[in-house]
Write a structure and sequence with these properties.
By secondary structure, the protein is mainly alpha-helical. It is 87% helix and 0% strand. It is built from 8 helices and no strands. It starts with a helix and ends with a helix.
């Protein structure tokens, strides 16, 4: 019975890992197009040539991506430290809600500031959640099976990463940019 419960728990965590990985990269195929739309709506874009607009968009995409990466790295470390304090109930209760607030901010605000701030908030917390799940997986796995469990967790992450671009692009095509985040 204990073996079956461990398998179910591990399988559940693999699904969670896959879903988290999907959410982390869900907006990948549309991010630069969304930023271009947001930038073109600004007064600064009106006076620029087409090539200058594209050049500005490239720079903005780079900065938005870099800031989001810094937020994600910081979130992973912060939640890892919190997990060392033995507070997983707090992590499970609040971090998904904070992820949702960040995503909703992007989806509802639909400004450059909303995109940058909301996306950074979302990635800070979702990356922290990813770290928390890996910590929990490590804690529930016997030492003799830890390598296999980590291998399966990476497979689950890869599955999420492969589904994300298709799903994100499909939602953007059918319902618009904001729907990807909502």
């Amino acid at each position: 019975q204990e073996s079956i419960n461990s398998f179910k728990g591990g399988l559940f965590l693999m699904v969670v890992i896959s879903f988290i990985s999907m959410l982390q990269t869900y907006d990948g195929p549309i991010l630069s197009l969304y930023i271009e739309d947001l930038f073109r709506a600004t007064p600064a874009a009106a006076s620029l040539s087409e090539s200058a607009v594209i050049s500005e968009v490239y720079g903005i995409v780079g900065w938005v991506s870099a800031l989001a990466s810094i937020a994600a790295m910081t979130g992973s470390i912060a939640v890892g430290v919190i997990m060392d304090w033995k507070l997983p109930a707090w992590v499970w209760a609040s971090i998904p809600a904070l992820c949702g607030l960040g995503a909703l901010w992007v989806g509802l605000d639909q400004t450059m500031f909303g995109l940058v701030a909301g996306r950074a908030l979302f990635l800070f917390f979702i990356s922290g959640l990813a770290s928390a799940v890996i910590v929990i997986l490590g804690r529930m796995t016997p030492n003799s099976k830890r390598g296999a469990a980590m291998g399966w967790s990476q497979t689950a992450r890869s599955l999420g990463w492969s589904v994300a671009p298709l799903a994100g692009a499909h939602v953007a095509h059918k319902a618009g940019w904001g729907a990807v985040y909502i």
